[in-house]
Every structure is written in structure tokens, then in C-alpha cells.
């Protein structure tokens, strides 16, 4: 079952890797060299991250909306604090969901890019893990990854360590040193990426809310998980994850610098830069944050626009095809006397 589900992703991973390997070989890199295959994995990361940029933009918007609606969330939580009966819990859930719906916030939107990357991560793990079987013919070739190319990738080394080697299944010191260095770098870059998000793009007022505390736990927990599970990963997978972290760090630095969260240290730095250049800093808002706002985020206190006579309803809405109502014209014909 899992073989059938992951086969298209494994085929995609193998196709991208072989494509970059052919390109690097074409420009003169040795085809059997470990650096050529390592750079092919880097190319795979670049292709995947470019494809995920639209989802990353959605992730940024979701995270920002979650930060901006925190004051309203805290009001709801304070309203039902200490009330543990079922009716109160249900009302709190309904008001929270109504807030999400009104502001267009998806609490799981920030996790989507990570979730979508996971299948590719497992696909690469299975491709690299299956290289020895594919090289000696015990496993069928995978798309453009022929038996000859699989044997070449399996025998290629990086600082004396095979790309399919792990810390636990290798005997040589070279493989253990290379895997341990990559595991430490992978854990450090994961911690640095999360810390950059917490220290520069989190408002001081939001550091005590549950979401900030959750991110703080993730900041310390994720590197620890990678450090514990890393010895089971092949060197090629560790390279993939390290390059992914470096890409995320650079992408996050760019976004924080250009579009910081409201009230954060990065926003103050952006305001200072814009003030020095004589530019105005645009403040971010969430449409529908207040119940008085309409769907476009504009307050209902504003005077409503008036339509043309004969084309508006009593409520001031546009009549006709778009308004869904038809305005009957008044008759000016005088009544006949009986």
C-alpha cells in the first residue's frame, strides 16, 4: 500500500536528481563523484522549495493573521475562564470558530508547507535506502534512475563516506564523522530558524500567549528530535534536510525584513529604515477582526454609498441583477374619478 502511494513521489525525486546529475556532468563534473550527486540533491531541494513558494506565502499570511487575532482570542478565553460545563465549552468553541471564519484565518495553514514536504522527505529516504538493492539488481530501476546510475550513486563518496550510509549502519570512521557533523549542523540550523522567528518577528505582547509558548517548545524540541533520529538517516537525506533549513532561514530572513509582524522588533527596524529614506510604512490589518467590520475590513461607521435613484433598495443596496431585487417604478398616472 505505502509502496503504491509513494511510487509517484519516488519517481519524481529520482527524475529531478538524475536530471541535475546529467546537467552537472554536462558542464564537466565527474559523473561518479559524490559531490556531483550531493549537488543533485541540492538541486532537488531548490526545485521543491520553488514549487512550495505559493504555499509559503500562505503560511506567512496564516501566521500573521493568527498573531493579529490573538487579542480577540484572549478576550474569548477570558470570557469563559473557569467555566468547565459543556455548554460554556461549546460556546467558546463556536465563538473561536466564528472568529476564524470572520477573519479568514486557518489555524493549520502555517503547518501546510511542512506537511507537504514530508512525503518528499520520505520518498528521498526510500530512494537512497534502496540504492544498494537497485545497484545489484534486487530492485527494479526507478524511472530514469537506471541500474548503472544507481550503482554509480551507491559507490560515490563524500569525504570517504557513501551517500547511502547512516551513522548506525556504517563501519568506517569517515561515515560516522560526516553523519555526526551533518546532524549537528541540521539541529543548529533548525534551532536558529525558529529562534529568528521568535526573537525578531514576534510582538513582545504576544510572547506570553499559548501560541508563542507552543513555538518556544518547538524551538527546543525539534532540534532534539533531529539529533536523536538523525543517526538513522542516510547522508543524502541529511544533506537534503540541511539545505532545506538553510533555504528556510534565508527565505524567512527576507520575509521578516520586508514584511515583519506588527509590533515586532523587525517592524520597528523597518519603520526606522523607511523613516530614514522618507518612506511611509504600511500597517497591516485583518479584515473582519471587529464584528463592526464588513467583509472588506471596512468599518460600518463609515457612511454607506448611495446609489442612483431607481436603482437602489430601501437598505441602500444595488438593485437589479447584482442586488437580486427589482425596484418597481412609481406610477404618476392620476386615478380616475368614479
Automatic annotation (TrEMBL):
<feature type="domain" description="Membrane insertase YidC/Oxa/ALB C-terminal">
    <location>
        <begin position="37"/>
        <end position="256"/>
    </location>
</feature>
<dbReference type="InterPro" id="IPR047196">
    <property type="entry name" value="YidC_ALB_C"/>
</dbReference>
<dbReference type="GO" id="GO:0032977">
    <property type="term" value="F:membrane insertase activity"/>
</dbReference>
<keyword id="KW-0472">Membrane</keyword>
<dbReference type="Pfam" id="PF02096">
    <property type="entry name" value="60KD_IMP"/>
</dbReference>
<feature type="region of interest" description="Disordered">
    <location>
        <begin position="271"/>
        <end position="338"/>
    </location>
</feature>
<feature type="compositionally biased region" description="Basic residues">
    <location>
        <begin position="328"/>
        <end position="338"/>
    </location>
</feature>
<feature type="compositionally biased region" description="Basic and acidic residues">
    <location>
        <begin position="271"/>
        <end position="283"/>
    </location>
</feature>
<dbReference type="GO" id="GO:0051205">
    <property type="term" value="P:protein insertion into membrane"/>
</dbReference>
<feature type="transmembrane region" description="Helical">
    <location>
        <begin position="12"/>
        <end position="29"/>
    </location>
</feature>
<keyword id="KW-0143">Chaperone</keyword>
<dbReference type="InterPro" id="IPR028055">
    <property type="entry name" value="YidC/Oxa/ALB_C"/>
</dbReference>
<dbReference type="InterPro" id="IPR001708">
    <property type="entry name" value="YidC/ALB3/OXA1/COX18"/>
</dbReference>
<keyword id="KW-0653">Protein transport</keyword>
<comment type="similarity">
    <text>Belongs to the OXA1/ALB3/YidC family. Type 1 subfamily.</text>
</comment>
<dbReference type="GO" id="GO:0005886">
    <property type="term" value="C:plasma membrane"/>
</dbReference>
<feature type="transmembrane region" description="Helical">
    <location>
        <begin position="35"/>
        <end position="57"/>
    </location>
</feature>
<keyword id="KW-0812">Transmembrane</keyword>
<feature type="transmembrane region" description="Helical">
    <location>
        <begin position="107"/>
        <end position="128"/>
    </location>
</feature>
<comment type="subunit">
    <text>Interacts with the Sec translocase complex via SecD. Specifically interacts with transmembrane segments of nascent integral membrane proteins during membrane integration.</text>
</comment>
<keyword id="KW-1133">Transmembrane helix</keyword>
<keyword id="KW-0813">Transport</keyword>
<protein>
    <recommendedName>
        <fullName>Membrane protein insertase YidC</fullName>
    </recommendedName>
</protein>
<keyword id="KW-1003">Cell membrane</keyword>
<feature type="transmembrane region" description="Helical">
    <location>
        <begin position="173"/>
        <end position="192"/>
    </location>
</feature>
<dbReference type="GO" id="GO:0015031">
    <property type="term" value="P:protein transport"/>
</dbReference>
<comment type="function">
    <text>Required for the insertion and/or proper folding and/or complex formation of integral membrane proteins into the membrane. Involved in integration of membrane proteins that insert both dependently and independently of the Sec translocase complex, as well as at least some lipoproteins. Aids folding of multispanning membrane proteins.</text>
</comment>
<feature type="transmembrane region" description="Helical">
    <location>
        <begin position="217"/>
        <end position="243"/>
    </location>
</feature>
Amino acid at each position: 500500500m505505502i509502496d503504491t502511494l509513494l511510487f509517484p513521489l519516488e519517481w519524481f525525486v529520482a527524475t529531478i536528481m538524475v536530471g541535475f546529475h546529467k546537467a552537472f556532468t554536462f558542464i564537466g563534473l565527474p559523473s561518479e563523484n559524490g559531490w556531483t550527486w550531493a549537488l543533485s540533491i541540492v538541486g532537488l531541494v531548490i526545485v521543491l522549495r520553488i514549487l512550495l513558494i505559493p504555499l509559503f506565502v500562505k503560511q506567512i499570511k496564516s501566521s500573521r493573521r493568527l498573531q493579529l487575532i490573538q487579542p480577540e482570542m484572549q478576550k474569548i478565553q477570558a470570557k469563559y475562564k473557569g467555566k468547565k460545563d459543556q455548554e460554556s465549552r461549546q460556546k467558546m468553541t463556536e465563538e473561536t470558530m466564528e472568529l476564524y471564519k470572520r477573519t479568514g484565518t486557518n489555524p493549520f495553514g502555517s503547518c501546510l508547507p511542512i506537511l507537504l514536504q514530508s512525503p518528499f522527505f520520505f520518498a528521498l529516504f526510500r530512494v537512497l535506502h534502496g540504492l544498494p538493492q537497485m545497484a545489484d539488481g534486487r530492485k527494479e530501476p526507478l524511472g530514469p534512475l537506471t541500474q548503472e546510475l544507481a550503482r554509480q550513486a551507491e559507490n560515490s563518496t563524500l569525504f570517504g563516506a557513501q551517500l547511502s550510509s547512516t551513522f548506525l549502519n556504517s563501519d568506517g570512521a569517515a561515515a560516522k564523522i560526516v553523519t555526526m557533523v551533518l546532524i549537528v549542523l541540521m539541529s543548529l540550523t533548525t534551532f536558529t530558524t525558529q529562534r529568528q522567528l521568535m526573537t525578531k518577528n514576534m510582538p513582545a505582547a504576544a510572547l506570553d500567549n499559548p501560541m508563542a509558548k507552543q513555538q518556544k517548545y518547538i524551538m527546543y524540541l525539534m532540534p532534539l528530535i533531529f539529533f536523536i533520529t538523525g543517526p538513522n538517516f542516510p547522508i543524502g537525506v541529511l544533506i537534503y534536510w540541511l539545505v532545506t533549513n538553510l533555504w528556510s532561514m534565508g527565505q524567512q530572513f527576507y520575509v521578516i525584513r520586508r514584511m515583519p509582524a506588527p509590533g515586532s522588533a523587525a517592524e520597528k527596524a523597518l519603520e526606522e529604515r523607511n523613516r530614514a529614506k522618507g518612506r511611509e510604512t504600511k500597517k497591516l490589518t485583518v479584515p473582519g477582526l471587529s464584528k463592526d467590520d464588513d467583509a472588506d475590513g471596512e468599518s460600518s461607521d463609515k457612511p454607506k454609498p448611495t446609489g442612483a435613484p431607481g436603482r437602489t433598495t430601501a437598505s441602500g443596496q444595488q438593485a437589479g441583477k447584482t442586488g437580486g431585487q427589482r425596484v418597481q417604478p412609481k406610477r404618476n398616472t392620476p386615478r380616475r374619478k368614479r
